[in-house]
Amino acid sequence: QVQLMQSGAEVRRPGASVKVSCKASGYTFTDYYIHWVRQAPGQGLEWMGWINPNSGGTKYAQKFQGRVTMTRDTSISTAYMELNRLTSDDTALYYCARDLPPVVGDSNWYDPWGQGTQVTVSS
Amino acid sequence: DIQMTQSPSSLSASVGDRVTITCRASQSIGSYLNWYQQKLGEAPKLLIYAASSLQRVVPPRFSGSGSGTDFTLTISSLQPEDFATYYCQQSSRTPPSFGQGTKLEIK
């Protein structure tokens, strides 16, 4: 079945970087975009950006421009999201999610989602 | 950016009740509206896409309607497994944005 499996929880100091992985299975990795969405404790969902695994093209939310990098390794069907210059406000659950190539805007709908990766930023 | 506002923010209901959750967009988004269910400790799960299309394996007691700026998610007869938080999401304009969520609790 279609599945996205994310890497495990991370703890970082303020100012550090974190890289989260998202391994796809059950479908052709390059046929669908991967989006990243985060959820701060007790909060709603915030879109961070997408990567096109076929071309490697990316688009990031303005809020994260200059601080986030999304990459992929097609040989192992894995997408990555790296976030730099972490602050306590970046403490959140980070999800990857699959989407068809967008027709309008930057997304269609997300299905499925990875299980989430907890990133904790603390001194 | 398009703001998505859900109402109510929380709702208490009983098994068997009919429940409606509303989502309003700050500008017209056509039918580019999706609904997700998130249970505690789990990732969101797609229920409805393009305002009214039911995702595969989602029970038919769930339905969506609306277009433009006003949308609804209806659960026709609540089941114990439906108690969760529900989010709407617009995919019309960049950036994609979500409502703040509606927490559905057992009365």
Notes on the structure:
The complex is a heterodimer of chains A (123) and B (107). Chain A is 0% helix and 46% strand. Chain A contains no helices and ten strands. A six-stranded mixed beta sheet of chain A has the order 2-10-9-4-5-6, with no helix packed on it. Chain B has no helices and eleven strands. The model of chain B has no long low-confidence stretch (mean pLDDT 96). Chain B is an all-beta fold and 107 residues long. The N and C termini of chain B lie far apart (36 Å). Chain B is globular. In chain B, β4 (33-38) and β5 (45-49) form a beta hairpin. Chain A binds chain B through residues 35, 44-47, 59, 61-62, 95, 102, 104-116, and chain B through 32, 34, 36, 42-46, 49-50, 55, 87, 89-101.
Question: Summed up, what is this model?
Answer:
Chain A is mainly β and 123 residues long.
Task: Summarize the SSE layout with pairings.
The complex is a heterodimer of chains A (123) and B (107).
Chain A: E1 3-6, E2 10-12, E3 18-25, E4 33-39, E5 45-51, E6 58-60, E7 68-73, E8 78-83, E9 92-99, E10 117-121
Chain B: E1 4-7, E2 10-13, E3 19-25, E4 33-38, E5 45-49, E6 53-54, E7 62-67, E8 70-75, E9 85-90, E10 97-98, E11 102-106
Parallel strand pairs in B: 2-11
Antiparallel strand pairs in B: 1-3, 3-8, 4-5, 4-9, 5-6, 7-8, 9-10, 9-11
Provide the descriptors you would attach to this structure in a database record.
heterodimer, A: 123 residues, mainly beta, 4-stranded antiparallel β-sheet, 10 strands, 46% strand, globular, B: 107 residues, 7-stranded mixed β-sheet, 50% strand
Radius of gyration of chain B: 13 Å
Mind telling me the C-alpha Rg of chain A? 14 Å
What does the average pLDDT of chain A come to? Answer: 96
Q: Could you tell me the number of beta strands of chain A?
A: 10
Helix run count of chain A: 0
Structural class of chain A: mainly beta
* Average pLDDT level of chain B: 96
**Treating each run of at least 4 consecutive H or I residues as one helix, how many helices of chain B?**
0
Amino-to-carboxy terminus distance of chain B = 36 Å
Query: What proportion strand of chain A?
Result: over 45%
- Write the element-wise H/E pattern of chain B from the N-terminal end onward: EEEEEEEEEEE
Helix-strand makeup class of chain B: mainly beta
From the spread of the alpha carbons, the general shape of chain B counts as globular
Portion in beta strands of chain B: over 45%
Low-confidence stretches of chain A: none
User: H/E element string of chain A?
Assistant: EEEEEEEEEE
Poorly predicted parts of chain B: none
Distance between the termini of chain A: 40 Å
Instruction: Give the chain pair forming the largest contact, with residue counts.
Output: A-B, 23 and 25 residues
Helix residue percentage of chain A: under 10%
